[in-house]
Amino acid sequence: MSGFKEYLKKKDVEISLKRYGVDALGAMAQGLFASLLIGTILNTIGTFFHVPFLENPIATFAGTEYTVGGLASAMSGPAMAVAIGYALKSPPLVLFSLITTGFAANTLGGAGGPLAVLVIAIVAAEAGKMVSKATKVDIIVTPIVTIGVGVGLAWLIAPPIGAGALKVGEFIMWATELQPFFMGIIVSVLVGIALTLPISSAAICAAFSLTGLAGGAALAGCCAQMIGFAVMSFKENKWGGLISQGIGTSMLQMGNIVRNPRIWLAPIITSAITGPLATCLFHLRMDGPAVSSGMGTCGLVGQIGVYTGWANDIAAGTMERITAFDHIGVWLISIGIPAVICPLINMIFRKVGWVKDGDLKLNNN
Questions:
Q1: Fewer Cβ atoms within 10 A, N terminus or C terminus of the chain?
Q2: How many CA atoms are closer than 13 Å to the CA of 152, on its beta-carbon side?
Q3: Cα radius of gyration rounded to whole Å, the chain
């Protein structure tokens, strides 16, 4: 057993929650951003501004026409798998072989493809790493093992994993439609917390295909964390901190949260307020890509996702037009309400001594 452990260490195969639940999951989200998300944004720009190069199909495969954005979106499976392999420090032959694995897992996983890709790409990458450079015919053995394990697992388990993830997402969305107030709070708080933790809320939302009202609640929770931390820490971090947290990530505060967990209370309470406001008052829906539900105000991707969903709904005939109330709702939930409520709540905690000057200061400020 000790010899096997040494071999795993030599091949940099580290079986740990951090490696798989943090590093791989975060990398998967980046793969999604660089494919599905960017593809969606390009399609939206093309549709809204009538850019011929982006709006018109540029290629046709098997009878299906693809725009530039459509091609990017179609590569989401390979992009996720390669990103996961990169996070697991896979050697080149393993990394390149994961392209096939990602395509197979995402395709066979259906709507729950991202979760299938996460599980299968991890196993395939680690299997490939274990045989990498172990033989004189590495250029043959490593790709065969990586692709064989990856596609074999995709064939066996991707459909049930995808179906299971979809059922979980459907249950959350059904429960949110049924009980928008309470589920608005639960979804908003949990996804918001995930956004600030060193895991990927975007990947979680994508894995469970979290859209609709539940997607709107998730977006509200993420925005509450990002805008909340950005505004309430302005005294310590000034404009640099406002921008880096407000359109970057609230994860920058994790070191401070570890030192004083009470600084997290104001953003969490804010998400518990904005979640039900999103679902019950503004009926905010995320009918764009599910990954956008977990993005908050990061690059305004969450808001672009909402507008993309509206465009899709209008094209499908399920939405007549975008009203002023719709516009006001998305920006109040995303920025306006968290920017006001979170600092006010934090002031109370400052008064009672739970939060002190310097507790929210970022190391790079």
A1: N
A2: 9
A3: 22
Give the count of beta carbons closer than 10 Å to the beta carbon of residue 328: 12
Rounded to whole angstroms, the Cα distance separating 56 from 69 reads 10
62 vs 222, which has greater pLDDT?
222
pLDDT tens digit sequence for 211-262:
999 999 999 999 999 999 999 999 999 999 999 899 888 888 988 998 999 9
Please check whether residue 355 is in contact with residue 253, taking contact to mean a CB–CB distance below 8 angstroms. no
Q: Which helix H or strand E contains 146, and what residues bound it? A: helix 138-178
Closest CA to 68 of 110, 32, 35: 35
Determine which helix (DSSP H) or strand (DSSP E) holds 59, and give its type and residue range: strand 59-61
Tokens of 15: 């079986």
Distance (Å, rounded) from C-alpha 93 to C-alpha 106? 20
Q: How far apart are CA 68 and CA 311, in angstroms?
A: 18
| Distance of alpha carbon 213 from alpha carbon 211, whole angstroms | 7
**Can you tell me the mean pLDDT for 24-42?**
84
List the structure tokens of 74. Answer: 């179609």
- Condensed to tens digits (0 to 9), the pLDDT of residues 295-307 reads 899 878 899 899 9
Contact between 81 and 74 (Cβ < 8 Å): no
| Of 325, 361, 290, 348, nearest in space to 40 by CA | 290
- Lookup: tokens for 276: 């039900």
How far is residue 159's CA from residue 183's CA, in Å, rounded to a whole number?
28
- Alpha carbon distances (Å) from 147 to 13, 103, 157, 231, 275: 18, 11, 15, 48, 43
> Residue 237 and residue 214: Cα distance in Å, rounded?
32
- The pair of structure tokens assigned to 261 is 């967990």
Of the pLDDT bands very low, low, confident and very high (cuts 50, 70, 90), residue 155 is very high
